[in-house]
């Protein structure tokens, strides 16, 4: 591929996947105080894939920029991204506690569009969803705002001359799509196995650039369009029933209207 890749990798700080979320007392959100946070697992795949593209040398990578929007503590996930191999990072500080909640997917897509234009990116690789709100909307919205090609739920990414082949997971199998740069790719779990950030790389990451910006600098309107009415735990699962034999099973299914 003759064009040099200028990759943007958005990452999000979320409650660690190993922690069971709890609804706060007000029933308005998930409790985040005193809870372990880490990088969204799907975003780890994105960082890993960006670094692997460079390592495979199938395409020329000019720069890998990691980006996050969130509280000041989001700097931690950016440092992890740089320790994994990102060249530099950028943090848009947005405190949900002070700003009336997290940025909505459309606002995030608008922010990313501004970063793409500001930093002259031609490839965006991001997780297909974040495990906190599970919206799975940002990548698609970003591609729409930019007017770029998109490939979602990628399980394999290959460069072929001037185009990119992406194998994506669909119900009952896989689908291969082909597109030219610039484009947006969202990552799925089978794409790769993210590396651990080694201690030497963690130390090196401290010397890499981390720029802080604001919504005002980007000129993005993050006005909320959605209102969370209520957040509740799933209802307890009801216990199953037992039958003595096959005839009993058939009778029970008929009783429930299943057959």
From TrEMBL:
<dbReference type="GO" id="GO:0005759">
    <property type="term" value="C:mitochondrial matrix"/>
</dbReference>
<dbReference type="InterPro" id="IPR014729">
    <property type="entry name" value="Rossmann-like_a/b/a_fold"/>
</dbReference>
<comment type="subunit">
    <text>Heterodimer of an alpha and a beta subunit.</text>
</comment>
<dbReference type="GO" id="GO:0009055">
    <property type="term" value="F:electron transfer activity"/>
</dbReference>
<dbReference type="GO" id="GO:0009063">
    <property type="term" value="P:amino acid catabolic process"/>
</dbReference>
<dbReference type="InterPro" id="IPR033948">
    <property type="entry name" value="ETF_beta_N"/>
</dbReference>
<dbReference type="InterPro" id="IPR000049">
    <property type="entry name" value="ET-Flavoprotein_bsu_CS"/>
</dbReference>
<dbReference type="GO" id="GO:0033539">
    <property type="term" value="P:fatty acid beta-oxidation using acyl-CoA dehydrogenase"/>
</dbReference>
<keyword id="KW-0249">Electron transport</keyword>
<feature type="domain" description="Electron transfer flavoprotein alpha/beta-subunit N-terminal">
    <location>
        <begin position="27"/>
        <end position="222"/>
    </location>
</feature>
<comment type="similarity">
    <text>Belongs to the ETF beta-subunit/FixA family.</text>
</comment>
<dbReference type="InterPro" id="IPR012255">
    <property type="entry name" value="ETF_b"/>
</dbReference>
<keyword id="KW-0496">Mitochondrion</keyword>
<dbReference type="InterPro" id="IPR014730">
    <property type="entry name" value="ETF_a/b_N"/>
</dbReference>
<keyword id="KW-0813">Transport</keyword>
<protein>
    <recommendedName>
        <fullName>Probable electron transfer flavoprotein subunit beta</fullName>
    </recommendedName>
</protein>
<dbReference type="Pfam" id="PF01012">
    <property type="entry name" value="ETF"/>
</dbReference>
<comment type="function">
    <text>The electron transfer flavoprotein serves as a specific electron acceptor for several dehydrogenases, including five acyl-CoA dehydrogenases, glutaryl-CoA and sarcosine dehydrogenase. It transfers the electrons to the main mitochondrial respiratory chain via ETF-ubiquinone oxidoreductase (ETF dehydrogenase).</text>
</comment>
């Amino acid at each position: 591929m003759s064009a040099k890749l200028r990759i943007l990798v958005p990452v999000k700080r979320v409650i660690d996947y190993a922690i069971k979320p709890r609804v706060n007392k007000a029933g308005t959100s998930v409790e985040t105080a005193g809870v372990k946070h880490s990088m969204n697992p799907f975003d780890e795949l994105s960082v890993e894939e960006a670094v692997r593209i460079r390592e495979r040398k199938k395409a020329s990578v000019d720069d890998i920029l990691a980006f996050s929007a969130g509280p000041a503590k989001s700097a931690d996930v950016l440092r992890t991204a740089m320790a994994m191999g990102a060249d530099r990072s950028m943090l848009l500080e947005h405190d949900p506690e002070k700003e009336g909640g997290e940025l909505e997917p459309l606002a995030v897509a608008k922010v990313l569009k501004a970063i793409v234009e500001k930093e002259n990116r031609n490839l965006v690789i991001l997780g297909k969803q974040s495990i906190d709100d599970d919206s799975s909307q940002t990548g698609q919205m970003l591609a729409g705002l930019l007017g770029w090609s998109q490939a979602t739920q990628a399980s394999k990414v290959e460069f072929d001359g001037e185009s990119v082949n992406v194998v994506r997971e669909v119900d009952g199998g896989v689908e291969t799509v082909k597109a030219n740069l610039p484009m947006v790719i969202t990552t799925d779990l089978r794409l790769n196995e993210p590396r651990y950030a080694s201690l030497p790389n963690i130390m090196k990451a401290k010397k890499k650039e981390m720029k802080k910006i604001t919504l005002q600098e980007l000129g993005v309107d993050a006005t909320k369009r959605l209102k969370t009415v209520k957040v509740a735990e799933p209802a307890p699962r009801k216990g199953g029933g037992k039958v003595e034999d096959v005839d009993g099973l058939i009778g029970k299914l008929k009783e429930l209207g299943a057959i």
